[in-house]
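Inputs:
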Amino acid sequence: MKKTLMTTTLATTFLASSLFAIIAPNSALAADYKVDVKGAHAFVQFKIKHLGYSWLLGRFNTFDGDFSYDDKSPNSANINIEIDTKSIDSNHAERDKHLKGKDFLNVSKFPKATFVSNNVKFSDNENAIVTGEFTLKGVTKTISFPVVKIGEGQDPWGGYRAGFSGTTSLKLADYGITYNLGPASTHVEMSLNIEGVRI
Amino acid sequence: MLKNTENSYGLIAIMFHWLMAISIFSLFGLGLYMVELTYYDAWYKGSLDLHKNIGLTLFVALMLRIVWRVVNVTPKNADESASKIEVKAAHYAHLALYGLMMVLMISGYLISTADGRAIDVFGLLSIPALPIDFANQEDIAGIVHEVLAWSLILISAGHVFAALKHHFINKNNTLVRMVKVLPRK
């Protein structure tokens, strides 16, 4: 009897831990995601008005990041993004060369732009305000911007993914970019569309 | 008259020399000036277009000049008393000027065509980009372009001083024969 009980207990423990191991990747304990830059399911884009007559769009091709998110405690989420400034691409080499130079990003001196969140506040299941430290051209400022959770779930290849979208407007002069692009072009709209793969 | 002789440059070589000299110094000045222009300067775009157009025209002129140099006789040294080292230095300085001009113009072309865009020449024809490119092409070509431009101007300045030295100190016809076609001896 005693022996049987012990066997049962062991079996139960074993079963439980096996189950736990299976469930674990989906539980609150593992909610860290790596931004899918390898598969390019993430985009750092910008747009700025040209002379006030149209939108000019561009992007940063090289960046990396990670975030943690758990729908059971969404407000404990956080995100880190590091952007390689010299990867700026506005589909025009001469303009990119100018943007990488001293008039704008000065990428040889400031090769990285970073964002590190320190507060995430969800108002419902999808909408949140992310606050954190944004560093561009050596200037660090605290910025807040709205983020929308697009979705999460299993992917068809055995992984688990979650994706978010956020936009913010940055005043160029705040980051030491004072080149005169005209009164309609003092701010740049940054947008971040990312998908993370759970690690 | 048109062709070089043993003791003088011909009119064509002289024309090539001075037209390119004027164009290159103008391009250097224009280059320094245009990069300082800002977005709301009326000539912000025009200055760059002009720089590219003159540069591409110069490239064609350089090719023709090299061909002309090869098919023509090269006049003898104007200064018979010049030391071997002096003659060699002048020779290599001339080669350096040709080499610098060529690479300088190619690097400029590589900046503008880094994204595969063609260069429009005076609205008349369009010079396409090469089918190949390399990483950070516009940045690397840009640095090469700037360094070589300064090098070309410095060596040209040396070339000018050497010519003036021959004219005023050595009192030979080195400079004179680049200004007018001398009669055959």
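Residues 42 and 194 of chain A are 4 Å apart (CA to CA). Flag for discussion at group meeting.
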